[in-house]
Amino acid sequence: MTIPRLTATLLLWALLGCHSATASLVELEVIDRERATPIQTHTHRGVRYVAGTPGQRYALRLTNQSGNRVLVVLSVDGLNAVSGETAAVTQTGYVLEPWASAEIAGWRKNMAETAAFYFSAMPESYAARTGRPDNVGVIGAAVFRERVAPPPLAMPSAAARSAESAAPAASDMGAQKAERLGTGHGEREYAPSSYTEFVRARSTPDEIVQIRYDSYANLLAAGVIRRAYVTPTTPQAFPGFVADPPR
């Protein structure tokens, strides 16, 4: 079965399968497209957040930190960024080559175009406009390792075959908030893609990576962003010596 593959960066479709991970397989960053730099991440109680501004276009940078291909099922506001379905880990996604990085800048419309991601007022988000506002404000990536075919077995000798026939087969057991932000469905952009085959090692993700987002004011009110303390200055009757006036 084939999966859509983005030229040099993106890719789609998959089969089931996976394995549990001990180290991070994929790094997820939110990129400010105007500045071409990552938006600052704030960590609060073990959860990562970014602050967005209405109208700000963004992309999601996925970096494969392993030497093997991985499949990333990408969710924005609880919706699959490729198919638009309510997101589930069994769905289509993007395939990354070993050590490769890709920037996903929008909702996939077809094999050549995406509709730009941008921060919007929650009622104007794509999720809310399609009647699915419950998970607005979270970006997630479910990562799957690829199933690797075992090397071909050597043909056993006649003596080994005789001993094997008598042995049993082994079995494998074992403050007041402002309006929340969402992600809008922006203008169409050229983003070519192609297909590739990918078989998941198992049916559950090796890793799930999440970043939450909202406005700066809301994250400040929620205590995610700490207000910078500025030492107040007060007028002094005797501040020092007389300076020359400007010329």
TrEMBL record:
Q: What is the lineage of its organism?
A: Bacteria, Pseudomonadati, Pseudomonadota, Betaproteobacteria, Rhodocyclales
Q: Which UniProt keywords apply?
A: Signal
Q: Where is the composition biased (Low complexity)?
A: 159-171
User: Which parts of the sequence are annotated with region: Disordered?
Assistant: 159-189
Mark out the compositionally biased spans (Basic and acidic residues).
177-189
Which species does the entry assign this protein to? Niveibacterium microcysteis
Protein name per Swiss-Prot or TrEMBL? Uncharacterized protein
Give the signal peptide, or none: 1-23
